[in-house]
Write a structure and sequence with these properties.
Length: 416
Protein backbone atom coordinates (compact mmCIF):
# COMPACT_ATOMS: atom_id res chain seq x y z
CA UNK A 1 0.00 0.00 0.00
CA UNK A 2 2.84 2.34 0.81
CA UNK A 3 4.14 1.93 -2.72
CA UNK A 4 0.72 2.68 -4.15
CA UNK A 5 0.41 5.77 -1.98
CA UNK A 6 3.82 6.94 -3.12
CA UNK A 7 2.83 6.49 -6.76
CA UNK A 8 -0.45 8.32 -6.15
CA UNK A 9 1.44 11.18 -4.56
CA UNK A 10 3.74 11.38 -7.57
CA UNK A 11 0.73 11.44 -9.91
CA UNK A 12 -1.00 14.10 -7.80
CA UNK A 13 2.18 16.16 -7.72
CA UNK A 14 2.57 15.84 -11.48
CA UNK A 15 -1.02 16.98 -12.00
CA UNK A 16 -0.47 19.95 -9.68
CA UNK A 17 2.65 20.97 -11.59
CA UNK A 18 0.80 20.62 -14.89
CA UNK A 19 -2.16 22.63 -13.59
CA UNK A 20 0.10 25.41 -12.31
CA UNK A 21 1.95 25.44 -15.65
CA UNK A 22 -1.33 25.75 -17.56
CA UNK A 23 -2.52 28.54 -15.26
CA UNK A 24 0.76 30.41 -15.73
CA UNK A 25 0.64 29.90 -19.48
CA UNK A 26 -2.93 31.10 -19.62
CA UNK A 27 -2.01 34.22 -17.63
CA UNK A 28 0.65 35.01 -20.24
CA UNK A 29 -1.81 34.60 -23.11
CA UNK A 30 -4.25 37.35 -23.98
CA UNK A 31 -7.81 36.79 -22.86
CA UNK A 32 -9.83 35.72 -25.87
CA UNK A 33 -12.76 37.87 -24.75
CA UNK A 34 -10.42 40.84 -24.37
CA UNK A 35 -9.12 40.36 -27.91
CA UNK A 36 -12.60 39.88 -29.32
CA UNK A 37 -13.78 43.10 -27.69
CA UNK A 38 -10.79 45.10 -28.96
CA UNK A 39 -11.32 43.78 -32.48
CA UNK A 40 -15.04 44.54 -32.33
CA UNK A 41 -14.33 48.16 -31.36
CA UNK A 42 -11.78 48.41 -34.17
CA UNK A 43 -14.16 46.89 -36.71
CA UNK A 44 -16.85 49.43 -35.82
CA UNK A 45 -14.37 52.22 -36.59
CA UNK A 46 -13.28 50.61 -39.86
CA UNK A 47 -16.91 50.19 -40.93
CA UNK A 48 -17.76 53.81 -40.07
CA UNK A 49 -14.70 55.04 -41.95
CA UNK A 50 -15.57 52.93 -45.00
CA UNK A 51 -19.20 54.10 -44.92
CA UNK A 52 -18.14 57.74 -44.99
CA UNK A 53 -15.57 57.41 -47.78
CA UNK A 54 -17.74 55.19 -49.97
CA UNK A 55 -20.79 57.47 -49.84
CA UNK A 56 -21.40 60.94 -51.23
CA UNK A 57 -22.60 62.25 -47.88
CA UNK A 58 -23.01 66.00 -48.37
CA UNK A 59 -24.66 66.39 -44.97
CA UNK A 60 -21.49 64.94 -43.34
CA UNK A 61 -23.61 62.84 -40.97
CA UNK A 62 -21.48 59.78 -41.67
CA UNK A 63 -18.34 61.81 -41.11
CA UNK A 64 -19.46 62.99 -37.69
CA UNK A 65 -20.64 59.49 -36.81
CA UNK A 66 -17.19 58.13 -37.60
CA UNK A 67 -15.34 60.87 -35.67
CA UNK A 68 -17.61 60.54 -32.63
CA UNK A 69 -17.05 56.80 -32.71
CA UNK A 70 -13.29 57.42 -32.66
CA UNK A 71 -13.67 59.55 -29.54
CA UNK A 72 -15.59 56.80 -27.74
CA UNK A 73 -13.96 53.61 -29.07
CA UNK A 74 -10.28 54.54 -28.88
CA UNK A 75 -10.27 55.12 -25.08
CA UNK A 76 -12.11 51.81 -24.64
CA UNK A 77 -9.52 50.04 -26.79
CA UNK A 78 -6.71 51.55 -24.72
CA UNK A 79 -8.46 50.50 -21.53
CA UNK A 80 -8.51 46.91 -22.79
CA UNK A 81 -4.85 47.19 -23.80
CA UNK A 82 -3.96 48.13 -20.22
CA UNK A 83 -5.18 44.74 -19.00
CA UNK A 84 -2.61 42.85 -21.12
CA UNK A 85 -0.20 45.43 -22.55
CA UNK A 86 2.53 42.93 -23.42
CA UNK A 87 0.31 40.72 -25.62
CA UNK A 88 0.53 40.63 -29.41
CA UNK A 89 -3.17 41.55 -29.84
CA UNK A 90 -2.51 44.63 -27.69
CA UNK A 91 0.48 45.51 -29.89
CA UNK A 92 -1.64 45.10 -33.02
CA UNK A 93 -4.32 47.43 -31.64
CA UNK A 94 -1.75 50.05 -30.58
CA UNK A 95 -0.16 50.01 -34.02
CA UNK A 96 -3.58 50.35 -35.64
CA UNK A 97 -4.54 53.34 -33.48
CA UNK A 98 -1.43 55.33 -34.46
CA UNK A 99 -1.57 54.34 -38.12
CA UNK A 100 -5.31 54.78 -38.70
CA UNK A 101 -6.91 57.24 -36.28
CA UNK A 102 -7.21 60.62 -38.00
CA UNK A 103 -6.37 63.60 -35.82
CA UNK A 104 -4.17 66.68 -35.69
CA UNK A 105 -4.72 67.60 -32.07
CA UNK A 106 -7.30 66.94 -29.37
CA UNK A 107 -8.34 63.75 -27.57
CA UNK A 108 -7.78 61.40 -30.51
CA UNK A 109 -4.20 62.62 -30.92
CA UNK A 110 -3.72 62.14 -27.18
CA UNK A 111 -4.85 58.52 -27.62
CA UNK A 112 -2.26 58.10 -30.37
CA UNK A 113 0.54 59.49 -28.19
CA UNK A 114 -0.56 57.22 -25.34
CA UNK A 115 -0.41 54.29 -27.76
CA UNK A 116 3.16 55.22 -28.65
CA UNK A 117 4.06 55.27 -24.96
CA UNK A 118 2.77 51.69 -24.60
CA UNK A 119 4.61 50.61 -27.74
CA UNK A 120 7.84 52.10 -26.38
CA UNK A 121 7.46 50.35 -23.04
CA UNK A 122 6.29 46.93 -24.21
CA UNK A 123 6.87 46.48 -27.94
CA UNK A 124 10.00 48.27 -29.16
CA UNK A 125 11.47 44.82 -29.97
CA UNK A 126 8.42 43.68 -31.94
CA UNK A 127 9.06 42.68 -35.55
CA UNK A 128 5.89 44.48 -36.76
CA UNK A 129 6.90 48.06 -35.90
CA UNK A 130 8.71 48.83 -39.17
CA UNK A 131 5.71 50.21 -41.09
CA UNK A 132 4.88 52.49 -38.15
CA UNK A 133 8.45 53.88 -38.17
CA UNK A 134 8.03 54.57 -41.89
CA UNK A 135 4.69 56.28 -41.28
CA UNK A 136 6.11 58.52 -38.53
CA UNK A 137 9.00 59.60 -40.74
CA UNK A 138 6.80 60.38 -43.73
CA UNK A 139 3.66 61.85 -42.13
CA UNK A 140 4.53 62.83 -38.56
CA UNK A 141 7.86 64.60 -39.08
CA UNK A 142 6.28 67.86 -37.88
CA UNK A 143 5.62 66.18 -34.49
CA UNK A 144 9.30 66.40 -33.52
CA UNK A 145 8.24 68.23 -30.35
CA UNK A 146 6.19 65.25 -29.14
CA UNK A 147 8.31 63.20 -26.72
CA UNK A 148 6.36 59.91 -27.25
CA UNK A 149 7.18 60.03 -30.99
CA UNK A 150 10.91 60.57 -30.47
CA UNK A 151 11.12 58.12 -27.56
CA UNK A 152 9.45 55.35 -29.59
CA UNK A 153 11.82 55.75 -32.55
CA UNK A 154 14.87 55.87 -30.29
CA UNK A 155 13.71 52.73 -28.48
CA UNK A 156 13.38 50.87 -31.79
CA UNK A 157 16.89 51.96 -32.82
CA UNK A 158 18.28 50.76 -29.48
CA UNK A 159 16.27 47.57 -28.87
CA UNK A 160 14.77 46.11 -32.04
CA UNK A 161 16.54 42.95 -33.25
CA UNK A 162 15.40 43.43 -36.86
CA UNK A 163 18.00 45.41 -38.82
CA UNK A 164 15.46 46.77 -41.32
CA UNK A 165 13.32 48.12 -38.47
CA UNK A 166 16.30 49.86 -36.90
CA UNK A 167 17.18 51.41 -40.25
CA UNK A 168 13.62 52.66 -40.70
CA UNK A 169 13.64 54.26 -37.24
CA UNK A 170 17.00 55.98 -37.89
CA UNK A 171 15.68 57.38 -41.17
CA UNK A 172 12.48 58.57 -39.46
CA UNK A 173 14.51 60.37 -36.79
CA UNK A 174 16.43 62.07 -39.60
CA UNK A 175 13.14 63.29 -41.08
CA UNK A 176 11.99 64.60 -37.70
CA UNK A 177 15.26 66.42 -37.10
CA UNK A 178 15.23 67.89 -40.62
CA UNK A 179 11.76 69.31 -39.97
CA UNK A 180 12.90 70.49 -36.55
CA UNK A 181 15.85 72.28 -38.16
CA UNK A 182 13.58 74.04 -40.66
CA UNK A 183 11.10 75.24 -38.04
CA UNK A 184 13.80 76.37 -35.62
CA UNK A 185 15.57 78.26 -38.42
CA UNK A 186 12.33 80.07 -39.28
CA UNK A 187 11.86 80.93 -35.61
CA UNK A 188 15.43 82.16 -35.25
CA UNK A 189 15.12 84.37 -38.35
CA UNK A 190 11.57 85.66 -38.09
CA UNK A 191 10.30 85.47 -34.49
CA UNK A 192 10.45 89.26 -34.09
CA UNK A 193 8.63 89.98 -37.36
CA UNK A 194 4.94 90.81 -36.74
CA UNK A 195 3.64 88.54 -39.52
CA UNK A 196 5.50 85.52 -38.11
CA UNK A 197 4.71 86.21 -34.46
CA UNK A 198 1.02 86.25 -35.41
CA UNK A 199 1.46 82.87 -37.11
CA UNK A 200 2.92 81.25 -33.98
CA UNK A 201 0.69 79.51 -31.47
CA UNK A 202 0.82 81.30 -28.07
CA UNK A 203 3.26 78.91 -26.37
CA UNK A 204 5.78 78.84 -29.22
CA UNK A 205 7.64 82.00 -28.22
CA UNK A 206 8.41 80.44 -24.85
CA UNK A 207 8.86 76.80 -25.93
CA UNK A 208 10.86 76.98 -29.17
CA UNK A 209 14.17 78.14 -27.62
CA UNK A 210 14.07 75.11 -25.29
CA UNK A 211 14.49 72.78 -28.29
CA UNK A 212 17.99 74.01 -29.08
CA UNK A 213 19.34 75.49 -32.28
CA UNK A 214 18.59 74.80 -35.91
CA UNK A 215 22.31 74.16 -36.42
CA UNK A 216 22.30 71.25 -33.95
CA UNK A 217 19.08 69.82 -35.42
CA UNK A 218 20.67 70.00 -38.88
CA UNK A 219 23.78 68.21 -37.63
CA UNK A 220 21.63 65.47 -36.05
CA UNK A 221 19.62 64.98 -39.24
CA UNK A 222 22.77 64.88 -41.37
CA UNK A 223 24.30 62.23 -39.11
CA UNK A 224 21.17 60.05 -39.32
CA UNK A 225 20.86 60.32 -43.10
CA UNK A 226 24.59 59.63 -43.53
CA UNK A 227 24.30 56.54 -41.32
CA UNK A 228 21.56 55.17 -43.60
CA UNK A 229 23.67 55.86 -46.71
CA UNK A 230 26.79 54.24 -45.21
CA UNK A 231 25.38 51.26 -43.31
CA UNK A 232 21.88 50.44 -44.59
CA UNK A 233 22.18 50.83 -48.35
CA UNK A 234 20.37 47.51 -48.92
CA UNK A 235 17.27 48.35 -46.85
CA UNK A 236 13.93 49.23 -48.42
CA UNK A 237 11.38 51.60 -46.94
CA UNK A 238 8.91 49.50 -44.91
CA UNK A 239 5.84 51.54 -45.86
CA UNK A 240 2.57 49.71 -46.40
CA UNK A 241 2.07 49.27 -50.15
CA UNK A 242 -1.57 49.71 -51.14
CA UNK A 243 -1.03 49.36 -54.88
CA UNK A 244 0.18 45.96 -56.18
CA UNK A 245 2.26 47.77 -58.82
CA UNK A 246 3.94 50.00 -56.24
CA UNK A 247 7.48 49.18 -55.15
CA UNK A 248 9.13 50.35 -51.96
CA UNK A 249 11.97 52.85 -52.46
CA UNK A 250 15.45 52.30 -51.08
CA UNK A 251 16.10 54.07 -47.79
CA UNK A 252 19.53 55.05 -49.10
CA UNK A 253 17.99 56.96 -52.01
CA UNK A 254 15.48 58.69 -49.73
CA UNK A 255 18.27 59.62 -47.32
CA UNK A 256 20.36 61.05 -50.17
CA UNK A 257 17.43 63.19 -51.34
CA UNK A 258 16.78 64.48 -47.84
CA UNK A 259 20.46 65.13 -47.21
CA UNK A 260 20.68 67.16 -50.44
CA UNK A 261 17.58 69.13 -49.44
CA UNK A 262 18.98 69.76 -45.97
CA UNK A 263 22.29 71.02 -47.31
CA UNK A 264 20.99 72.98 -50.33
CA UNK A 265 17.31 73.84 -49.91
CA UNK A 266 17.07 74.88 -46.27
CA UNK A 267 16.67 78.43 -45.02
CA UNK A 268 19.86 80.42 -45.55
CA UNK A 269 21.02 78.42 -48.59
CA UNK A 270 21.36 79.74 -52.11
CA UNK A 271 18.92 77.89 -54.37
CA UNK A 272 20.07 75.75 -57.27
CA UNK A 273 19.09 77.23 -60.59
CA UNK A 274 16.21 75.88 -62.64
CA UNK A 275 16.63 75.84 -66.42
CA UNK A 276 13.57 74.39 -68.08
CA UNK A 277 10.70 74.90 -70.49
CA UNK A 278 7.74 76.94 -69.34
CA UNK A 279 4.12 75.98 -69.89
CA UNK A 280 4.16 78.52 -72.73
CA UNK A 281 6.85 76.46 -74.50
CA UNK A 282 9.62 78.99 -73.91
CA UNK A 283 12.73 78.11 -71.93
CA UNK A 284 13.82 80.35 -69.07
CA UNK A 285 15.83 80.25 -65.83
CA UNK A 286 15.00 80.88 -62.20
CA UNK A 287 18.14 83.02 -61.99
CA UNK A 288 16.54 85.44 -64.47
CA UNK A 289 14.78 86.92 -61.44
CA UNK A 290 18.00 87.47 -59.49
CA UNK A 291 18.06 90.96 -57.98
CA UNK A 292 14.36 90.73 -57.13
CA UNK A 293 12.43 89.32 -54.21
CA UNK A 294 11.02 86.13 -55.69
CA UNK A 295 8.30 83.68 -54.77
CA UNK A 296 8.67 80.20 -56.25
CA UNK A 297 5.46 78.20 -55.92
CA UNK A 298 4.96 74.52 -56.79
CA UNK A 299 1.35 74.19 -57.95
CA UNK A 300 -1.02 72.12 -60.10
CA UNK A 301 -4.60 72.43 -61.31
CA UNK A 302 -5.49 69.06 -59.68
CA UNK A 303 -4.33 70.37 -56.30
CA UNK A 304 -7.18 72.02 -54.38
CA UNK A 305 -4.98 73.89 -51.86
CA UNK A 306 -2.80 75.13 -54.75
CA UNK A 307 -5.80 76.68 -56.46
CA UNK A 308 -6.99 78.15 -53.14
CA UNK A 309 -3.61 79.86 -52.93
CA UNK A 310 -3.91 81.45 -56.38
CA UNK A 311 -6.08 84.46 -55.31
CA UNK A 312 -3.51 85.24 -52.59
CA UNK A 313 -0.72 85.07 -55.17
CA UNK A 314 -2.66 87.18 -57.68
CA UNK A 315 -3.28 89.88 -55.09
CA UNK A 316 0.41 89.89 -54.16
CA UNK A 317 1.50 90.19 -57.80
CA UNK A 318 -0.90 93.10 -58.34
CA UNK A 319 0.28 94.83 -55.15
CA UNK A 320 3.95 94.44 -56.13
CA UNK A 321 3.47 95.72 -59.67
CA UNK A 322 6.33 98.05 -60.63
CA UNK A 323 8.55 96.82 -57.78
CA UNK A 324 11.54 94.47 -57.78
CA UNK A 325 9.43 91.38 -57.34
CA UNK A 326 8.84 88.16 -59.29
CA UNK A 327 6.34 85.33 -58.95
CA UNK A 328 7.40 82.08 -60.63
CA UNK A 329 5.53 78.78 -60.69
CA UNK A 330 6.49 75.15 -61.13
CA UNK A 331 3.47 73.36 -62.58
CA UNK A 332 2.79 69.72 -61.69
CA UNK A 333 0.11 68.93 -64.26
CA UNK A 334 0.92 65.92 -66.47
CA UNK A 335 -0.01 67.85 -69.63
CA UNK A 336 0.67 71.44 -70.65
CA UNK A 337 -2.93 72.03 -71.84
CA UNK A 338 -4.17 71.27 -68.28
CA UNK A 339 -1.81 73.91 -66.92
CA UNK A 340 -2.71 76.49 -69.56
CA UNK A 341 -6.45 76.04 -69.02
CA UNK A 342 -6.02 76.66 -65.30
CA UNK A 343 -3.80 79.70 -65.85
CA UNK A 344 -6.22 81.17 -68.37
CA UNK A 345 -9.26 80.52 -66.18
CA UNK A 346 -7.63 81.98 -63.04
CA UNK A 347 -5.87 84.81 -64.93
CA UNK A 348 -2.44 83.76 -63.66
CA UNK A 349 -0.09 86.18 -65.42
CA UNK A 350 3.26 84.96 -64.06
CA UNK A 351 5.45 82.35 -65.77
CA UNK A 352 5.54 78.71 -64.74
CA UNK A 353 8.06 75.99 -65.44
CA UNK A 354 6.53 72.68 -66.50
CA UNK A 355 7.50 69.74 -64.28
CA UNK A 356 7.07 67.27 -67.14
CA UNK A 357 4.66 64.49 -68.04
CA UNK A 358 5.33 62.76 -64.70
CA UNK A 359 3.25 65.48 -63.04
CA UNK A 360 4.11 65.82 -59.35
CA UNK A 361 6.91 63.29 -59.77
CA UNK A 362 8.70 65.30 -62.44
CA UNK A 363 12.39 66.32 -62.49
CA UNK A 364 12.09 69.78 -60.88
CA UNK A 365 10.05 68.67 -57.87
CA UNK A 366 12.36 65.66 -57.48
CA UNK A 367 15.46 67.85 -57.55
CA UNK A 368 13.89 70.18 -54.99
CA UNK A 369 12.61 67.28 -52.86
CA UNK A 370 9.04 68.63 -53.00
CA UNK A 371 6.37 66.19 -51.88
CA UNK A 372 3.66 68.57 -50.62
CA UNK A 373 1.62 70.71 -53.02
CA UNK A 374 1.67 73.65 -52.82
CA UNK A 375 5.20 74.25 -51.56
CA UNK A 376 6.33 77.87 -51.62
CA UNK A 377 9.88 79.24 -51.38
CA UNK A 378 10.48 82.95 -50.75
CA UNK A 379 13.88 84.09 -52.04
CA UNK A 380 15.79 87.29 -51.43
CA UNK A 381 17.49 89.30 -54.17
CA UNK A 382 20.59 87.06 -54.00
CA UNK A 383 18.59 83.85 -54.43
CA UNK A 384 18.88 82.88 -50.76
CA UNK A 385 15.94 80.96 -49.28
CA UNK A 386 14.40 83.11 -46.57
CA UNK A 387 11.14 81.26 -46.01
CA UNK A 388 9.49 78.00 -46.96
CA UNK A 389 5.81 77.23 -46.64
CA UNK A 390 3.73 74.12 -47.41
CA UNK A 391 -0.02 73.85 -47.90
CA UNK A 392 -2.77 76.42 -47.62
CA UNK A 393 -4.56 77.77 -44.56
CA UNK A 394 -6.22 80.82 -43.09
CA UNK A 395 -2.80 82.28 -42.26
CA UNK A 396 -1.33 81.81 -45.77
CA UNK A 397 -1.99 85.35 -47.02
CA UNK A 398 -0.58 86.95 -43.87
CA UNK A 399 2.58 84.83 -44.00
CA UNK A 400 3.33 85.26 -47.70
CA UNK A 401 2.62 88.99 -47.79
CA UNK A 402 4.39 89.64 -44.50
CA UNK A 403 7.52 87.80 -45.54
CA UNK A 404 7.73 89.56 -48.91
CA UNK A 405 7.17 92.96 -47.29
CA UNK A 406 9.96 92.36 -44.76
CA UNK A 407 12.40 91.37 -47.51
CA UNK A 408 11.41 94.33 -49.69
CA UNK A 409 12.57 96.64 -46.89
CA UNK A 410 16.13 95.37 -47.36
CA UNK A 411 16.29 95.96 -51.12
CA UNK A 412 18.59 98.83 -52.11
CA UNK A 413 16.66 101.84 -53.31
CA UNK A 414 16.54 102.33 -57.08
CA UNK A 415 18.30 105.33 -58.51
CA UNK A 416 15.81 107.91 -59.77
Amino acid sequence: MGGVSFINMKIITAYLVLALTLIAARSEQPSSSNTVEMNALKKALVDAHTAFYSTNDESLKLYYTWRQLEETNLPQMLSLVQKEPESQPACDVLLWIVLNAEANRGPIFTNQLESLDYLTKYHSTNSKVGPLCSYLGRFWSWHWREKPVVDFLNSVVKNNPVRANRAQAIYALGCLNANKSEQLAAFENWSKAPFYAKYLIPNDLAEMPAFGSSRQATADAEQEFKEIIANYDDCLDLRELRNPKETAPQLKKLAEENLFSLQNLSLGNKVPDIKAEGVDGKKFKLSDSRGKISVLTFWASWCGPCMQMVPVEKALVERMQGKSFAMIGVNGDPTIPDANRAMEREKMTWPSFWNGKEGPGGPISKAWNVHSWPTIFVLDADGIIRFKYEGYGSESSNILNGCVDELMKNLPAKNP
